[in-house]
Amino acid sequence: xxxxxxxxxxxxxxxxxxxxxxxxxxxxxxxxxxxxxxxxxxxxxxxxxxxxxxxxxxxxxxxxxxxxxxxxxxxxxxxxxxxxxxxxxxxxxxxxxxxxxxxxxxxxxxxxxxxxx
Length: 117
Known about the structure:
This protein has 117 residues and is of the alpha+beta class.
């Protein structure tokens, strides 16, 4: 299991311990697919359901698709960088969705304390 996958799973578990549904502003149900170098295979998260979900593999109809370097996504998840930095540098690429969706996703994910805190 790669570091990005481990951190994403930790974050989903922490979200669920908060005891309230987590959603992306503007998206009642968000399916975020991540296809990251160094992770071996894609995985996706589902937000907007009573419990956030982490699932292996591709989703047939993702709302947001992000590809790129696993280290870049890990830095976003741990709060080391704002998501705009790896996007601007080409370390992450928004394959599906829009820029506002990904900014709102980053805001939704930031409610969980970083494992680096």
